[in-house]
Design brief:
Layout lengths: L1 H32 L25 E5 L2 E7 L6 E5 L2 E4 L1 E4 L2 E5 L5 E9 L2 E3 L6 E4 L2 E8 L15 E9 L4 E9 L12 E5 L8 H4 L3 H10 L7 E5 L17 H16 L9 E6 L1 H10 L8 E5 L18 H5 L1 H7 L2 E7 L5 H14 L4 E5 L5 H14 L6 H6 L10
Parallel strand pairs: 13-14, 13-15, 15-16, 16-17, 17-18
Antiparallel strand pairs: 1-2, 2-6, 3-4, 3-7, 5-6, 7-8, 7-10, 9-10, 11-12, 12-14
Helix pairs in contact: 3-9
Length: 412
């Protein structure tokens, strides 16, 4: 009889563990599907008439803690999913129902779906803007804690339009305002935050989840309330849509975006209350502007980032660093924060190390971080989280006084 009771108790414990595991998997699924540019909940296919065939639920699901991608592809012969340099093959588990168990860690991934050899955009996967076009991505749970939608006070992301003299056309930007902005009179510091090549002003909101990140940092007292202005850095002049002019950004920012944003929103005046940061191409744009105009920016963030410009030029361009080369101590005295970070597996890590040497040669004071990961949003989210926690705070006196201080989640 005791053996029988022990067996029943063991089965009960197993059942409870199984239920808890299912709850955790469901929570991970909801976190990873909760928000994208064109939807807030999982897409649902329904038949409009009796002639429409009802398909099963599609998208990312979790089976025993592992993400499984399930798609209904009628009359498909083969299907693949490309993630970076890897391509994975779907299996047809039932007629027209294809599945792929993803051997991926939690995080964000751009993906390319091909059906019968043709690249397609699936409405049952999150849709964003990357590769200079709409594209699918995956957000595999559990989502990074700082990027989740929590039950905290939320700020707003506003979509603004303005005419830019630099490009001769209407441009657009997204602006994050912190909780309490509406109805108040307080003025705030401002961060101008740029995306990477092939993306646009929406990248930091949907891929970077910057609004939720700021909400969570503010709720925990880990950041200063600020405005974040995000504009399209893939700039083209009117009538020249096929010609990308990366070097237009400094003029665009100073002549068009800053005057618009700082008149439209309640921002504090002066360089001490203004920051400029970006990822990859955006880091080059940020560096080209901030180093050339130390009278305007006291806080600089370069994520998977570069001090020099490597885009659209036959030789590496460091002309904007002339003032730093001439007076590095003056730069150190004036600048409140130079934040440089990159993923350890980034394809551009050698360039990052070359610029380590540049910083050492000129004695530039900085916060330097190396995170696990490559040239992707999983690293850039970590960059943003730590950078936002440093912005406009007295802690950065450590940087001014000691150069390489303040412990973080990345390696110094």
């Amino acid at each position: 009889m005791p053996d029988r009771m022990d067996e029943m108790e063991s089965r009960l414990r197993s059942l409870i563990r199984g239920e808890k595991r299912e709850e955790q998997e469901q929570a991970a699924e909801e976190e990873s599907l909760s928000e994208q540019a064109v939807a807030f909940h999982r897409p649902y296919l329904f038949g409009l008439t009796a002639l429409h065939e009802k398909a099963p639920s599609q998208g990312v699901f979790y089976r025993h803690g592992r993400p499984v991608l399930r798609l209904w592809l009628k009359n498909a012969c083969d299907a693949t999913l490309s993630v970076g340099q890897e391509t994975y093959i779907f299996l047809e588990v039932e007629r027209n129902l294809w599945e792929l168990t993803l051997p991926l860690e939690p995080g964000f991934y751009y993906v390319t779906l091909a059906v019968n050899g043709v690249e397609v955009l699936s409405p049952f996967l999150p849709v964003g803007y990357g590769y200079s076009r709409p594209c699918n991505f995956l957000e595999l749970g559990p989502v990074r804690e700082s990027c989740r939608i929590e039950r905290t006070p939320h700020g707003s992301v506003r979509h603004e339009y303005f005419y830019a003299e630099t490009t001769g056309r209407q441009e657009t930007c997204l602006v994050y305002t912190p909780p309490g902005y509406d109805g108040g009179q307080e003025r705030y510091p401002v961060l101008y935050l740029q995306h990477g090549f092939g993306e646009n002003e929406t990248g930091w909101v949907w891929q970077g989840r910057i609004g939720h990140m700021m909400d969570n940092l503010l709720a925990r007292g880990l950041a200063v309330p600020m405005l974040i202005v995000m504009a399209d850095g893939m700039l083209r002049r009117a009538g020249q849509d096929e010609v990308l002019e990366n070097t237009l950004f400094p003029e665009f920012l100073l002549r068009d975006l800053m005057p618009f944003a700082e008149e439209r929103f309640r921002v504090l005046d002066g360089r001490e209350h203004r920051a400029l940061a970006g990822l990859s191409m955006g880091s080059m744009q940020a560096a080209a502007t901030a180093f050339a105009h130390p009278e305007l920016f006291a806080w600089i963030g370069l994520f998977s980032g570069f001090l020099r410009n490597y885009i659209g030029t036959e030789q590496v361009d460091d002309s904007h660093l002339a003032g730093v080369y001439a007076d590095p101590e003056g730069f150190n005295r004036q600048n409140r924060l130079l934040f440089r970070a990159m993923g350890r597996e980034d394809v551009f890590f050698n360039w990052f190390m070359e610029e380590d040497q540049l910083c050492e040669d000129y004695g530039l004071r900085q916060v330097r971080r190396v995170y696990e990961g490559g040239h992707d949003w999983n690293v850039w989210r970590q960059c943003a989280e730590e950078f936002l926690g440093l912005l406009f705070t007295p802690q950065c006196q450590l940087v001014k006084d000691y150069g390489w201080h303040r412990e973080g989640k990345g390696d110094s």
